[in-house]
Specification:
Elements (H helix, E strand, L loop, with lengths): L5 E7 L6 H10 L5 E5 L6 H7 L3 E4 L5 H15 L4 E4 L11 H9 L5 E5 L6 H14 L11 E3 L1 H8 L11 H9 L4 E5 L16 H18 L12 E3 L1
Parallel strand pairs: 1-2, 1-4, 2-3, 5-7, 7-8
Antiparallel strand pairs: 4-6, 5-6
């Protein structure tokens, strides 16, 4: 049997209630290379992910969503994967949409595709989206979606040292890829409501303020001297 060149990466922190179901549903659509990056969980996340058939990378310390995701990307590169999909462990993202996210990459029209669902946005989330669209000039609607597809060029860029200090995967990743000359597309996809728990970023107004401040610093410090460049944001609908 030919080895897959696609890996599905799932960063997870204390998601024991949902991670097994997420892994199982991915495997049900024929994708067996599922890698869960357990971000130093204090519950049974790692055990339940492994029991469902995932390969589990257990981190010794909590690195946050982006640190865990970058760990997964680096691991995927080492193992020879040429494409990765990132999904949340909370059950919001539907595995049935994976082929649609991959289509622009397979066709050679994009290096990264974002699975977008603006209907899910809370008031706080929409404020953050509007703020950063205005500041960065990005026309992407769902800036915080963790449901993304990356090709090999994007994987290599995001595995590099210059991507290591990004606090969050959304704004920093997008700006880094764009300023590296890579192409981004956005596709509207359906998502489910979170089964349990709450957003790590949008759980309180204090967290939102912290998120806005850190990304503001990122935008002004890392990219203020960068040469402006264009990007592709062809919005499809599933």
């Amino acid at each position: 049997m030919k080895r897959s060149t696609l890996a599905v990466l799932i960063p997870a922190w204390n998601e024991e209630a949902t991670v097994a179901d997420v892994v199982s549903k991915i495997r049900e659509v024929g994708l067996y290379d599922v890698i869960v990056i357990d971000d130093a969980s204090t519950d049974q996340t790692a055990d339940r992910a492994a029991a469902a058939g995932a390969r589990v990378l257990s981190l010794a310390v909590n690195l946050g969503a982006w640190g865990a995701t970058q760990t997964g990307i680096r691991f995927a590169l080492k193992k020879g994967y040429r494409q990765v999909i990132t999904m949340d462990a909370d059950g919001q993202h539907l595995s049935s949409a994976i082929p649609h996210l991959l289509a622009p990459i397979t066709a050679g029209n994009a290096d990264m595709v974002i699975g977008s669902c603006t209907e899910r946005g809370s008031h706080a989330r929409k404020i953050a989206w509007r703020f950063f669209r205005g500041m960065t000039g990005l026309e992407i609607e769902d800036l915080t979606s963790g449901f993304r597809a990356y090709d090999l060029a994007a994987m290599r860029t995001l595995a590099s040292k210059k991507a290591t200090l990004l606090e969050y995967q959304d704004i920093g990743v997008l700006l880094l890829l764009i300023h590296s000359g890579l192409r981004i597309q956005e596709m509207q996809v359906p998502m489910r409501l979170r089964v349990s728990g709450s957003s790590k970023i949008f759980s309180s107004w204090f967290k939102v303020a912290e998120y806005l401040l850190l990304n503001l610093i990122l935008c002004t410090s890392h990219f203020m001297k960068a040469k402006p460049c264009s990007y592709v944001s062809n919005r499809g609908t599933l």
